[in-house]
Amino acid sequence: MTNFGATILDADGLRLTKDEKRLFADTNPFAFILFSRNIEDADQVRALCSAFRESVGREAPILIDQEGGRVQRLRPPLARNWAPPLDFVAAAGQNAERAMYLRYLLIASELRDLGIDCNCAPLVDIAFADTHEFLRNRCYAAAADEVAVLGRAVADGLKDGGVLPVMKHIPGHGRAQLDSHHALPRVGSDLDTLRQTDFAPFKALADLPMGMTAHIVFEAISDQPATLSRGAIEMIRSDIGFDGLLMTDDIGMKALTGGPGRITVDALNAGCDVVMLCNASFAERVEAAEAAGQMTPLAQARAERALAARDAAPDIDIAARTAELEALFRG
């Protein structure tokens, strides 16, 4: 079997263009990701997912960001609206763990119905008092141990619903005081502090099949963003113990500088397994895909192991699980 291409790519619109089909057939991206611009109605989303997979001749993973709150690509009538995770957890109180499990079980059911089988969650960054507003209410809690428990509930809910979880943003984005979509955050905390706080939830969930890097500089490790830092990736593999498939966050974000080809090479050389490029021009996607080439044998093995954990969509009693969730909030 030919190794997967070391990229995760997207499409411009509701349907694949001829150029996109040719690019995907030629470069065999590992996976694809959907955004709001790719979503019109249920039949169209299913057809687009099928077209992605047909372009590479296999059941390629289809990713989406469906956290709830501000970051959810699917909205009614295709999927229910959810409160931001931090608000949802606060409202659930002592029932938060079960509530988060049910929330993401229901999300998984909505995704699988449309042909989507990977969700970029759990987000196990810690909510600090000065966490940037772009991230803070997407977090689950302010204590590392509570974040880990809730992150596990999210991952279990997704997996039990037939959707692979993608843990993010490893090794931790909570201390960022800048939005990495627009600038490069830097964190000056010492390693002991980071290990006891930021890194701890990721260590607790290191068995998950896939993870996504943080575009953030940890000055105690490197002067480069973690996505591009061999020292940071080695720390993720050794100290945190994560041996799953490691994808970059979107390399088109402004936290990273340089063209997509250069960033792709640097991320793979640092130790990432696969590079994700979103919201880019067609020429930029070509540049990244050609620079990435095929996965290394080790990355391929991690990818195959992750895909082996992808279960068939189960039958879920949606009405019963919804009623249980509503009962939790009633007390």
Describe the 3D structure.
The protein is 42% helix and 12% strand. With 331 residues, the chain is an alpha/beta fold. The chain is built from 13 helices and 12 strands. An 8-stranded parallel β-sheet has the order 11-9-7-6-3-2-1-12. A two-stranded antiparallel sheet has the order 4-5. A two-stranded parallel ribbon has the order 8-10.
Summarize the structure.
This protein is 42% helix and 12% strand. The chain is built from 13 helices and twelve strands.
**Helix content range of the residues, please?**
40-55%
* Residue windows where pLDDT falls under 50 for at least 5 positions: none
Gyration radius, in Å:
19 Å
Structural class: alpha/beta
Strand percentage lies at 5-15%
How widely separated are the two ends? 53 Å
- What order do the strands of the largest sheet run in, or round the barrel if closed? 11-9-7-6-3-2-1-12
Descriptive tags:
single chain, 331 residues, two-stranded antiparallel sheet
Outline the secondary-structure elements.
Layout: E1 5-9, H1 18-27, E2 29-33, H2 42-56, E3 62-64, E4 66-68, E5 71-72, H3 85-92, H4 96-113, E6 118-119, H5 133-136, H6 144-160, E7 164-170, E8 186-187, H7 191-196, H8 200-204, E9 210-213, E10 217-218, H9 230-238, E11 245-247, H10 260-270, E12 275-276, H11 282-292, H12 297-308, H13 318-330
Parallel strand pairs: 1-2, 1-12, 2-3, 3-6, 6-7, 7-9, 8-10, 9-11
Antiparallel strand pairs: 4-5
